[in-house]
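re: ur question from earlier - yeah i can do the single chain one, its not a big deal. heres the input i used so u can compare w yours
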Amino acid sequence: MKTLYIDCAMGCAGDMLTAALLELHPDREGFIRRMNAVLNGKAVVSAVADKKCGIVGTHVSVLINGEHTHHHHTGIQEIRAFIDAVDLPEKVKADAKAVYDIIAQAESTAHGAEIENIHFHEVGSLDAVADVLCVCELLYEITPEKVMASPVNVGYGHVKCAHGIVPVPAPATELILRGVPMYSGRVESELCTPTGAALLKYFVSEYGTMPVLKVSKAGYGTGKRILKWPMWCARFWAKPKANAHRLLSLYAT
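and the output i got, formated as tokens:
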């Protein structure tokens, strides 16, 4: 059985998961070209070699109108329509919409508003939608039979968002991760984003320590933030007692 193990010792974010999974793909450049064709210029995904903590990995970024940040207040219906319009397998589009439904339900509960009236901020921007589509497509192509993860390090402190200053984990992230083992760790920062939390919630079927695995391949995804503590987000792709892949993402120092 092919099992994907995600070590969330330093949280989880959509771009980091994209970068780490991309390192397991047999045709990384081809995947990026196809995703950019699918996004039709509305978002541009790029992947470059990067080095953090002396380890070479991949850094993925998404540009909207040539910029790294693009926060637009987007409703769930608009996001669903965008996902429906892209030229990807129906399974991938269904997965992406399900991930956003998880986020929408959490935002609805956190803000006391009907789901259809929720307007996403950071997680509704096209770069976040592109991250979700990339992760869903990568998992579709890699085809793990089981996805597992470690308890999630969410960080601690406060973070500034469109609604103001909120505690870490952010209310939506905390709601999404209910029922999932999580802890604050020793890094004062937001380590797990709502997008990362929703991807974990949707795809992961079991949480715990890494099982006995026979590993044959590793991938590393790097991020742009620099913290006092090394940020490790390890993801292992493996087949116990058989040939396997290990996915390890190092995303900041």
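The longest strand covers residues 44-52. not sure if urs matches, ping me
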